[in-house]
Amino acid sequence: MKMHGRIYATGKRKEAIAKVWLKAGSGNITVNGKPLDEFLGGREALKLRVRWPLMLTKQENAVDIDVKVFGGGFAAQADAVKHGISKALVEYAPEFRSILKPAGLLTRDARKVERKKYGKKKARKSPQFSKR
């Protein structure tokens, strides 16, 4: 969705939701008002995960991205941001779809935490069985 010269997209993963605004620029990524490196700290794998759609489409230094993300943990938030950036890039330039779709970046990861069942210790773990 295009608003005020910027492209808006939403990315989701588990309980995390990322609102992504993308515009032409110099490659700045801001998450919750902080630069990406400051937001994710020393988690290099998560930083790479967030930058992956930009690296595939060679837009690392061509677009500025502003993200508001909430819910979930750091990994889920990073994946939500990745999903939102991928959707925004397709809106920005439709030819990127043929690059991002085969890489699986446009697919929403629908896995969620399974609920705990009664009579069980966790979702699937049973109490220890005693024969006698």
UniProtKB/TrEMBL annotation:
One of its GO terms (cellular component) is cytosolic small ribosomal subunit. Residues 111-132 are annotated as: Disordered. It comes from the Bacteria. SUPFAM superfamilies: Ribosomal protein S5 domain 2-like (SSF54211). Keywords: Ribonucleoprotein, Ribosomal protein. Transmembrane segments: none annotated. GO terms for molecular function: RNA binding; structural constituent of ribosome. InterPro entries: Ribosomal_Su5_D2-typ_SF, Ribosomal_uS9, Ribosomal_uS9_bac/plastid, Ribosomal_uS9_CS, Ribsml_uS5_D2-typ_fold_subgr. One of its GO terms (biological process) is translation. Residues 113-132 have a biased composition (Basic residues). HAMAP family: Ribosomal_uS9_B (MF_00532_B). Belongs to the universal ribosomal protein uS9 family. PANTHER family: RIBOSOMAL PROTEIN S9 (PTHR21569), SMALL RIBOSOMAL SUBUNIT PROTEIN US9M (PTHR21569:SF1). NCBIfam families: PRK00132.1. This is Small ribosomal subunit protein uS9.
